[in-house]
């Protein structure tokens, strides 16, 4: 039993390969009870695959190894049914595209009451009452009238809310939200973020928030994990990473964020592109794009190590701590306000 551990979920040495090409190279990650953890990194670095693998949602051709423990109980390598119980109940995942989770030919009320029946055994009037409460909770106006509508009768932002209501039906301990706002316009994005923050405060569920949007991550999460080319390269509190990124990649991600006010500055994009997992560079996978890289970086891959300030870092030539301390980036200050 994992009673001694405050970790809700523990991923250990999680690896994924598609057709013999490894895309995830041994992820070790803990999600603590009730915390909000952000997962960031450029497209293709393995953010979605990490959680799809952890929850048994990858297609059969994917080869997955490693351990996934939920409150100390191993859930990887289990049967399909055991995964489904975990997924619908203890851990729920929502995606960028609500149409992947909502059934277009079933009325919304029925979809939510079915989820309530499966996960919580609520039937009849009790199920309907709870479904209405969930719709109200996620901010669907006039839920009683909308109960019998079909998904296409809702806007994109409302569909995202419906998907969150479905995810909440099982009263999950963890909600994994994979780019839940990228398809929405800025105003609706902000509303959905507020909703996620509010729901977490009300229910105490942990949240894993996967996003390209570092601003959104800083609003929602206390801790951030940065991935590159199928590995974690830096992990720390949001305050640590925003005020003092040590990995040149983390720093590059922050330098590429537009500033809200102040003098207009050129954004500094990270040169180059994410490597193809089939042809990963020798040594540190980021070294060909890294302005700080030296010869050693191109021959030896630095392991992920814990620093004295509590963060984890995989870098041979990190951004010096002092250099950043005096010149705390304005972007970071704005974001942490
Ligand atoms: N079903 C699949 N079959 C083959 N390769 C896949 C599959 N799913 C993902 N990959 C590969 O795995 C790697 C990691 O993909 P993943 O979807 O996790 O990236 P991501 O970080 O979520 O990116 P994005 O920000 O674009 O969502 C990529 O190289 C991708 O091409
Ligand atoms: Mg993804």
UniProtKB/TrEMBL annotation:
The keyword Cell inner membrane does not apply. Signal peptide: none annotated. GO terms for molecular function: ATP binding; ATP hydrolysis activity. It is a peripheral membrane protein. GO terms for cellular component: plasma membrane. Its main location: membrane. SMART domains: AAA. One of its GO terms (biological process) is peptide transport. Pfam families: ABC_tran, oligo_HPY. Keywords: ATP-binding, Cell membrane, Membrane, Nucleotide-binding, Transport. InterPro entries: AAA+_ATPase, ABC_Ni/Peptide_Import, ABC_transporter-like_ATP-bd, ABC_transporter-like_CS, Oligopep_ABC_C, P-loop_NTPase. It is found in: Cell inner membrane. Residues 9-254 form the ABC transporter domain. Belongs to the ABC transporter superfamily. This is Peptide/nickel transport system ATP-binding protein. It comes from Xaviernesmea oryzae.
């Amino acid at each position: 039993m994992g009673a001694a551990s405050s970790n809700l979920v523990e991923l250990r040495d999680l690896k994924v390969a598609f057709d013999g090409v490894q895309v995830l190279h041994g992820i070790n990650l803990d999600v603590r009870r009730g915390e909000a953890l952000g997962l960031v990194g450029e497209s293709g670095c393995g953010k979605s695959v990490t959680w799809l693998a952890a929850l048994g949602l990858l297609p059969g051709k994917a080869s997955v190894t490693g351990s996934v423990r939920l409150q100390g109980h191993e859930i990887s390598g289990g049967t399909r049914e055991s995964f489904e119980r975990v997924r619908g109940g203890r851990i729920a995942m929502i995606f960028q595209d609500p149409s992947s989770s909502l059934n277009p030919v079933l009325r919304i009320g029925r979809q939510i009451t079915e989820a309530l029946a499966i996960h919580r055994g609520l039937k009849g009037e009790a199920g309907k009452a709870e479904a209405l409460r969930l719709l109200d909770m996620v901010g669907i106006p006039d839920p009683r009238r909308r109960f019998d509508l079909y998904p296409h009768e809702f806007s994109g932002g409302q569909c995202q809310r419906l998907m969150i209501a479905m995810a909440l039906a099982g009263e999950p301990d963890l909600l994994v939200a994979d780019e839940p706002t990228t398809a929405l316009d800025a105003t609706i994005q902000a509303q959905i973020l507020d909703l996620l923050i509010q729901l977490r405060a009300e229910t105490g569920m942990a949240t894993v928030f996967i996003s390209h949007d570092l601003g959104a991550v800083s609003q929602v999460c206390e801790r951030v994990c940065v991935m590159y080319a199928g590995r974690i390269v830096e992990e720390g509190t949001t305050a640590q990473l925003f005020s003092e990124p040590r990995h040149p990649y983390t720093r590059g991600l922050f330098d590429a964020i537009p500033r809200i006010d102040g003098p207009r500055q050129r954004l500094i994009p990270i040169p180059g592109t994410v490597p193809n997992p089939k042809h990963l560079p020798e040594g540190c996978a980021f070294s060909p794009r890294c302005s700080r890289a030296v010869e050693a970086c191109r021959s030896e891959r630095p392991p992920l190590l814990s620093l004295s300030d509590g963060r984890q870092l995989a870098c041979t030539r990190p951004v010096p701590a002092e250099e950043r301390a005096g010149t705390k980036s304005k972007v970071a200050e704005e974001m942490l306000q």
